[in-house]
Amino acid sequence: MISLVHRVRATGPLVSRIVAALVGGYALAALFSVAVLALPLSRPQAVLTGMLASFAIYAGAVIWVFAVRSALKAWAGLLIVAAPLVPLAWSVS
Amino acid sequence: MNTDDDVRVEGPGIRQSMSSLHTWAGLLLGWVLYAMFLTGTVSYFKDELSQWMRPELARLSQVPDRAVVAQRIADELGNIAPGTSQWSIRLPDERNNSANVFWRTAPRNPGQRGFGEASFDPVTGQRVTSRGTLGGEFFYRFHFQFHYMPVVWGRWLAGIAAMFMLVAIVSGVITHKKIFVDFFTFRSGKGQRSWLDAHNALSVFGLPFHFMITYTGLVTLMAMYMPWGEMAAFKSPAERQQLNAELTAFIQPGKPTGQKAPLASVEDMVRQAQERWGRDNVGRITAVHPGDAAARVSVARAESGRVSMSPQYMEFEGATGKLLTVREAVGAAAETRGVLYALHLGRFSDTETRWLYFLVSFMGTAMVGTGLVMWTVKRRQKLPDPDRPYFGFRLVERLNIASIAGLSIAMTSFLWANRLLPHPMEGRADWEINAFFIVWGLALLHALMRPVKAAWVEQLWTASALLLLLPILNALTTQRPLWRSLAEGDWVFAGMDIMCWALALLHAVLAMRTARQAANAPSRRRANRPTPMTVASSEGAR
């Protein structure tokens, strides 16, 4: 039991980062691609802009997640960027 | 696979964490990436490969006037597929000796879409019969959707692999602090250092290309990977059509009137397009409801001479031949997408640019390959017992052999199968592909059973021999041996033969080098030298 706790302690942050990178990064990119619709562009152009840029957002998020000092900070960063995007995405859909 | 790299993720230095990210993002799908890179690289010569794989089709020394060809085939389609709701002709060009045509047929089951597909001789306008083969199209499709799995799964796998690649590139650059100094550094014959230097040189030289090709690869299928904006923006099919119009030259078919009206002169329509874009710059002709009063015909601009895949086309009323619209511009974002898409495919390129594409992309393949090998080279020195490596190490080692040397064998076997399988033969095209995978599977078995070095050397020699003998097999089984190709100036066939020999030489050199390393292996000088400190600093230098 103690060894299990130890194990979770040791690998937990890494697993958390991997989830943040794979799932969190994609979610942020997807959210961005919807929020872009709030820009004063025609709908088709806005949609395409969001798609085109989304992979840069995703890659940037992954780099961020592994570059910062702790898993907590990694998640916090993603959430801070997501926060202003949520109302924008909400307003257009 | 628990090495000190994993632990270092929690460590302080950004360079260390980026180095670990680079290592694992590169490794986990590295074999998939290698296969995507190599099959993608040869796809820059997809049309030439397709010509080589259909040796029955005569070389087209001069492309006939496309307007005349279009009319011929349109007439023939009236006989073959009367009452079709749509047909589409890709006209021949310098790289294609036949016109590729498809047409819709009445669906066998309701809800399904049936279609026919065939190659047409531009001179006679008749359907050509050649051996059943997917040609270069197989490598092309494999490189983004694989095989034996639903297309959608394959494309998702390719997308995930491309995303890993993108992360590996960015983290690799951050890791690499002396990017330009190291580019001019090559320490030959020094084991790990040589692999590192080779990996660096290949990566840095082609960096803009590797980044471009990875990102644009994602762009080609972005609507599938990131559909959320589209789903939020458009509620009805009509709205969605606005988006499609920015992406393709496809005309939305209206309802047929049921009133018969023969198609006006297709030749005249193509002539108008030629006047606008140039004689050789007409690509695809599509007709919807041909033979009906509501018919529409679009003539699209070809892909050469502009670095963009955005739709440019002229639309005509089918029954009268009246020009309805000319579309030559799309929105800024759509044009950006069109340019990125075109950069990935490289279809705009002339022969020189195409070779440059091929070479740099080949370097990208080698970058992935050296990276994969380096993973094992670096860890071999730190193994507690070099004679009994842990499972993960052995797995990587064996997969490397099968996916690098084995893929060369499999791809060449695909070409061998093209020459050796009888024709006509039921399901011939499929069996060429099955041969590719059977041989690849055998290569994996071989890699699992033989000692590592022996497996590398034997597979590299096998690939070399198959490549060396392919031009000879070609001479024996077709009417187009090298001497005749050279005499006739047929650079598709001659180039293919010479390229096989160049690649045979490359594999032979690799085999000999690997064999020599095997001989030196017992006296591995650095086997116990590096401490974790020196390994860490060498990683930091990457």
Q: If interface size is counted as residues with C-beta under 8 Å from the partner's C-beta, which chains form the largest one?
A: A-B, 35 and 40 residues
User: Kindly, what is the distance between the CA atoms of the first and last residues of chain A, rounded to a whole number of angstroms?
Assistant: 48 Å
Q: Strand tally of chain B, please?
A: 7
Provide the helix percentage of chain A: over 70%
Query: What is the number of helices of chain B?
Result: 22
Report the sheet with the most strands of chain A, covering strand number, pairing sense and barrel closure. none
Structural class of chain A: mainly alpha
SSE pattern of chain A, N- to C-terminal:
HHH
Determine the N-to-C terminus distance of chain B: 21 Å
- Rg of chain A over CA atoms, rounded to whole Å, is 16 Å
Which regions of chain A have little confidence, pLDDT < 50, spanning 5+ residues?
none
Structural class of chain B: alpha+beta
**Shape of chain B from CA axes?**
globular
The total beta strand count of chain A reads 0
Summarize this, please?
With 93 residues, chain A is mostly helical. Helices cover 87% and strands 0% of the residues of chain A.
Would you write up a description of this structure?
- The complex is a heterodimer of chains A (93) and B (542).
- Chain A has helices at 2-35, 43-67, 71-92.
- Chain A is an all-alpha fold and 93 residues long.
- In chain A, helix 1 (2-35) packs antiparallel against helix 2.
- Chain B has 542 residues and is an alpha+beta fold.
- Chain B has two domains: 4-55 and 146-220 and 349-540, no CATH class; 66-132 and 248-344, no CATH class.
- In chain B, helix 7 (151-175) packs antiparallel against helix 10.
- Residues 1-11 and 521-542 of chain B have low confidence and may be disordered.
